[in-house]
Amino acid sequence: MRDVVIATNLTKRYPLTKRYRDIFLRPFASTHLTALCDVSFMVGEGEVFGILGPNGAGKTTLLKLLAGLLLPDAGTIIINGRDIAESERHTKESVGYVVNEERSFYWRLTGRENLSFFGTLEDLSGKVLSRRIEEVLELVGLTADADRMVKDYSTGMRRRLAIARGLLRNPSIILFDEPTATLDPKLSSSLRTFIRETLSKKEGKAVCLATHNLFEAETVCDRIAILHKGRLLACGAPPDLRSRVADQCVVELTVSDSPGEEELTDAARQCGWAPLSFVREPGRIRMRVAYPETRRDLSPLVNAVSLAGFSVFACLPVEPSLEEVFRRFTEEYAE
24: pLDDT confidence band, cut at 50, 70 and 90? Predict the structure, then answer.
């Protein structure tokens, strides 16, 4: 798989405005906010690459760097074999940036007229632009509504129009910033399917998707980069990331609801297992426990719980969730 994006040691700082009193009280304080620090990764052709992080992690800054809207203070970005600092036109032709801001459209124009306007700004014109507008409208499923005013569009239709705008130049790389934010579950699922099945698999486009939604990252992305406070903490496929934190054995034990949680906890601790969580259900308790080894015979745990008076319904190993992976990496960074 050919790498269409190669980012190396990216750093971006924003200047901070100092007040007069700060000049005297804190003359040597930093005058810059570091949004990204030494970030490196690659994205392959047809790959969905997730950038996962909380608000303020630097996700939007990273996307703007990839789109050529900002230049890094240090590091390089190679897009389809060329440095973005050397050719703005090449970057514009190669990268489509899908902006979710609905007010970026002209609401009293139709969807088709909006695409015509933005296509003109992208140096497209005449039959080439007309043909491309028809192609992207069909791709996103807006052909039937193309001549309605945007003010009459639903939220989902405006989101699809934003994708169509980002595809006008037929770029090989598409950037999404929180694509399902503000969408209801049904529309979110439809958009994720479109990104995964149509843009990535059918069209063969590389997709960079910034999100703080763990479910979205896990279900849509081939690989995930965990970004926290401007630093790239980890990067890999979800199973690879899980394996990097699988330094303990975690199992979920389902038992009867009596004698009680205290007796269940004592029984687990007797054979070296540490209780992590309890969930009470009608007639039963689900408890997750951990042992500080990756492999462990479960029979002593089951026997101890049985001897304590519980009926054991199930005892199954549990993979670390992406939430647990994210928590572990960010906690290690904080330390």
Answer: low
